[in-house]
Amino acid sequence: MSQKIYVGNLGYSIDDSALSEKFAEFGTVQSSKVIIDRDTNRSKGFAFVEMSSAIEADRAINALNGTEFGGRAMNVSEAKPMAPKSRY
Length: 88
What we know:
Layout: E1 3-8, H1 16-23, E2 29-36, E3 43-51, H2 54-64, E4 68-69, E5 72-73, E6 75-78
Antiparallel strand pairs: 1-3, 1-6, 2-3, 4-5
């Protein structure tokens, strides 16, 4: 089963393909998505990567958390589901 990873403090010059390439060292990347600000069309400095298994995800988290990429030390952890938003 696939595992989603949160990548924070990401360099603003990093795009989806560079991120995917970085994480591919640790297994099969099913998807990678740098989050873009819709007003400025620039990176918000964080992303999500989906690895094909929890083992590969753990390997990537342990190896990459705190390492520099794009000029900044990344925060890499297991993605947490969003809390439901109140309708009011």
